[in-house]
UniProtKB/TrEMBL annotation:
It comes from Pseudomonas triclosanedens. PANTHER family: POLYSACCHARIDE EXPORT PROTEIN GFCE-RELATED. Residues 75-160 form the Polysaccharide export protein N-terminal domain. This is Polysaccharide biosynthesis/export family protein. It is found in: Cell outer membrane. It comes from the Bacteria. Residues 346-363 form the Outer-membrane lipoprotein Wza C-terminal domain. Keywords: Cell outer membrane, Ion transport, Lipoprotein, Membrane, Palmitate, Polysaccharide transport, Porin, Signal, Sugar transport, Transmembrane, Transmembrane beta strand, Transport.
Length: 371
C-alpha cells in the first residue's frame, strides 16, 4: 500500500506540473486546485517562504523533551540489591575451610548462586535469605548466624561475582543487542547505547523507544549532538526495554529533472531540502526548470485503500531566486516526502508523461523494495 500511495502522490504532482508550465497559460492557485481534483487529489499549495520556515522551527521547538519522570529517576548509589541468579562470593577470614578465594576460576567455583527462591546455603549458617538484601546487609546476617555456631567475631565479606538478576533488553538496530546486566554502578541510557553500538547508516536515531513500567517513551538520541541536552541524565532501571528502529521508512524520494533520481535514506532528526538536492547531484542544468521545485507531502493518516481523494501538501520553491538555496537549507524534510523537479519547455501533455514516467517508476519500485 505504501508504494501505491507514493505513486499516487507523484502522478498527481506530474499532472499539476504539466498544467503549470504549458506555454501561454497563467495558472492561479484555484486553477491548480481544480486540476488536482481532476487527478483524484486534494492538495494545499504552500510557497516555501521565511514564514513557513518559522512555523517549522516553532513546531520543532514545541516538541516535548526528555520526560521529567525519566530524568527524576536515580538508582540506589552503591547499594545494589541482590536478586535471584546473582553469583556471590562469601569470604570468612581465617577460616579457609569455609572459603578458598584463590584465582578467578576458583572464586567462580566457590560462588554461591542465589536460587529462584531468593536464598543461598552457607556452611554453619544454613539457608539464608539473600534476595532484596544489599551485600552489606547479607554480610551482617551471615556474621550473626556464624557467631551463633561458635565462630568468634567472624569477619565476613560478601562480593557479587556475577550480576544476573537485574538487566535491560536492547533490540533493533544495535550491533550488540540483547540482555545487558545492571550492576552496582548506575548505567545511563547513553552508556548502554554506546556500549551496544549502533549499526551505522541503518538506525533511526530519532526514534529510540524506552519501555518502562508499562509506558513507552520515544527519545531522540540524535539530540545528543545538541547543546544543553539532558539525555545523559536518563538512568536505566531493571526491566527497561530499549528498541532502536531501523530507518527503512525514513526515506525521501527525488524524481524529475535532477542528475540522479534516487531514494535518500537518513537516520537523524533533520534532513534539509538542500541536502536532498545535493545528494541527487543538483538540478539537471539542461532540462530542469529552477522555479519548479516541489515537495509533495501526503497525509500520514491516509492509506492507498482509503476512500476519497488523496490528500497532500505541495510546497513550492522558486529556486531561480538568489535566496532560494538559503530557504532550501532550512526547509526540513519528513519521511516519505517526494521531491519533484519539473522540466523546462513543456509543450504537450503526452511528452510530459513520457519524460517523467521513468522517475515515477523509480519511486514505485523503491517503495516496494523498502517495505
Amino acid at each position: 500500500m505504501k508504494n501505491l500511495f507514493v505513486f499516487g502522490l507523484v502522478v498527481g504532482s506530474l499532472a499539476l506540473q504539466g498544467c503549470v508550465f504549458s506555454p501561454g497559460q497563467h495558472m492561479t492557485d484555484s486553477d491548480i486546485q481544480r486540476e488536482a481534483q481532476k487527478e483524484g487529489m486534494q492538495i494545499t499549495l504552500v510557497p516555501i517562504t521565511p514564514q513557513v520556515l518559522q512555523r517549522q522551527e516553532a513546531t520543532r521547538e514545541s516538541l516535548p523533551g526528555v520526560p521529567a519522570e525519566l530524568l527524576n529517576y536515580r538508582p540506589p548509589q552503591n547499594d545494589y540489591l541482590i536478586g535471584a541468579g546473582d553469583v556471590l562470593l562469601v569470604t570468612v577470614w581465617d577460616h579457609p575451610e569455609l572459603t578458598s578465594p584463590g584465582s578467578t576460576q576458583q572464586m567462580e567455583a566457590n560462588g554461591r548462586v542465589v536460587g529462584a527462591d531468593g536464598n543461598i546455603f552457607f556452611p554453619y549458617a544454613g539457608v539464608v535469605r539473600a534476595e532484596g538484601q544489599s551485600p552489606a546487609q547479607l554480610r551482617s546476617r551471615l556474621a550473626s548466624q556464624l557467631g551463633k555456631k561458635g565462630i568468634v567475631d567472624p569477619q565476613v565479606d560478601v562480593t557479587v561475582l556475577r550480576y544476573a538478576s537485574q538487566h535491560v533488553v536492547l533490540s533493533g538496530a544495535f550491533q550488540n543487542g540483547g540482555q545487558v546486566e545492571l550492576n552496582n554502578t548506575p548505567t545511563t541510557l547513553v552508556q548502554a547505547v554506546s556500549k551496544a553500538g549502533v549499526i551505522a547508516g541503518e538506525a533511526d536515531l530519532s526514534g529510540l523507544t524506552l519501555k518502562r513500567d508499562g509506558r513507552e517513551y520515544v527519545i531522540d538520541v540524535d539530540a545528543l549532538n545538541r547543546t544543553g541536552s539532558t539525555l545523559s541524565g536518563v538512568y536505566l532501571k531493571n526491566g527497561d526495554q530499549i528498541h532502536l528502529p531501523y530507518n527503512d521508512r525514513k526515506k525521501v524520494y527525488v524524481v524529475g529533472e535532477v542528475e540522479r533520481p534516487q531514494v535518500v535514506t537518513y537516520r537523524t532528526t533533520g534532513l534539509s531540502l538542500l541536502e536532498v538536492l545535493g545528494n541527487a547531484g543538483g538540478l539537471a542544468p539542461e532540462t530542469s526548470d529552477g522555479d519548479s521545485v516541489y515537495v509533495i507531502r501526503g497525509n500520514p493518516q491516509q492509506t492507498a485503500s482509503a476512500q476519497g481523494a488523496f490528500q497532500a501538501q505541495v510546497f513550492h520553491l522558486e529556486a531561480k531566486r538568489p535566496t532560494a538555496y538559503a530557504l532550501a537549507k532550512e526547509f526540513a524534510m519528513q519521511p516519505q516526502d517526494v521531491v519533484f523537479i519539473g522540466p523546462a519547455n513543456i509543450t504537450r501533455w503526452n511528452r510530459f508523461i513520457s519524460q517523467l514516467l521513468p522517475s515515477a517508476n523509480i519511486v514505485s519500485t523503491s517503495a516496494a523494495v523498502g517495505r
